Backbone:
C-alpha cells in the first residue's frame, strides 16, 4: 500500500531563498526533497531539515540549477542594496533639509524683543541711518550671528 505524504514549503516566515523553487518540504519526516528532473526522472534526493545552505550544497550536483539560484540571489541582493541606498539617501536629504530650515524667532518672543531693542539702541548711539537694517550685507551679518533672528524694517526701529 502506497503512503501519501503531504509535501509543501516550510511554514513560518516567508522563504526568500530561490532554492525553494527546486525543493519541497516534508513536515512529517523533517526533510526537504529535491524536485529537479533529469533525463525523465526526478532527482528525489532528501536533505535533512529546511536550511537553505544545506539545500544549496545539494544543488551543486545540478550545475545549471545551482548557477540559476546563485544568479537570482545576486540580483535580489543588488535590488535590496539599491533600495536601501535610496531609502538612506532620502532620509539623509530630509535630515539636511530640516537642518537648513531654521525657525525664526516669533516677534512676540523675549529674545526677539531684546535683540531688536539692542539694535535700535546701537543705531541711535552710533548715529547711523535707520536704513542700515535694510542693507543686505547688514542683514546677512545679523543672520550669520543669529540665524533665528529676522531684523525688522526701519519703521519699527524708529519707534523703539
Residues:
Amino acid at each position: 500500500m502506497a503512503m501519501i505524504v503531504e509535501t509543501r514549503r516550510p511554514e513560518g516566515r516567508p522563504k526568500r531563498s530561490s532554492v525553494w523553487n527546486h525543493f519541497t518540504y516534508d513536515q512529517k519526516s523533517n526533510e526537504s526533497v529535491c524536485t529537479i528532473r533529469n533525463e525523465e526522472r526526478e532527482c528525489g534526493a532528501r536533505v535533512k531539515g529546511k536550511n537553505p545552505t544545506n539545500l544549496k550544497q545539494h544543488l551543486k550536483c545540478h550545475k545549471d540549477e545551482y548557477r540559476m539560484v546563485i544568479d537570482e540571489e545576486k540580483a535580489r541582493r543588488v535590488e535590496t542594496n539599491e533600495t536601501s541606498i535610496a531609502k538612506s539617501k532620502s532620509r539623509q536629504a530630509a535630515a539636511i533639509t530640516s537642518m537648513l530650515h531654521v525657525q525664526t524667532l516669533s516677534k512676540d518672543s523675549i529674545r526677539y524683543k531684546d535683540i531688536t531693542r539692542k539694535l535700535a539702541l546701537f543705531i541711535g548711539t552710533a548715529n547711523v541711518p535707520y536704513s542700515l537694517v535694510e542693507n543686505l550685507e547688514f542683514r546677512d551679518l545679523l543672520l550669520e550671528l543669529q540665524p533665528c533672528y529676522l531684523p525688522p524694517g526701519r519703521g519699527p526701529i524708529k519707534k523703539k
Observations:
- The first strand starts at residue 7 and ends at 8.
- The CA atoms of residues 37 and 43 lie 6 Å apart.
- The chain has a mean pLDDT of 77.
